[in-house]
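pls design
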């Protein structure tokens, strides 16, 4: 088992993305750094790898400084599989995963892409990853009503 994987019980009302992929480009811009969010529907761990591989085929994402992500999947036995990846932005995947857990987001992946703007953002970079994730969760909630 991957050390990033965690399991939890399934409780409460959940939020799931629609089929396919949704992209919100440059939803946050700070000191030249730009943040884009991608949300996709996934149903297996194998689909996560394919989704990420397909994403970086697009030059916009391949040229990005970081493509940090987190996902949560409800397995057939009712357990929830979740994992994250930082892509060099240490701690960013955990920020995304924490927000997905709070929103009870399932069967999807959220990728926060950062283009470095030339100025160090220090701890603000994590604030932006969290805010970008929250903005997309709110958009998904409104769409699901």
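designed seq:
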């Amino acid at each position: 088992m991957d050390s990033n994987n965690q399991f939890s019980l399934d409780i409460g009302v959940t939020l799931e993305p629609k089929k396919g992929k949704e992209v919100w480009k440059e939803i946050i811009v700070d000191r030249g750094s730009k943040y884009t969010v991608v949300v996709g529907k996934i149903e297996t761990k194998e689909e996560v790898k394919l989704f990420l591989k397909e994403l970086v085929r697009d030059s916009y994402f391949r040229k990005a400084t970081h493509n940090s992500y987190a996902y949560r999947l409800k397995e057939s036995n009712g357990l929830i599989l979740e994992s994250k990846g930082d892509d060099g932005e240490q701690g960013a995947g955990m920020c995304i995963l924490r927000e997905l857990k709070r929103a009870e987001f399932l069967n999807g992946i959220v990728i926060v892409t950062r283009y470095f703007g030339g100025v160090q953002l220090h701890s603000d970079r994590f604030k932006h990853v969290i805010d970008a994730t929250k903005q997309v969760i709110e958009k998904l909630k409104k769409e699901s009503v």
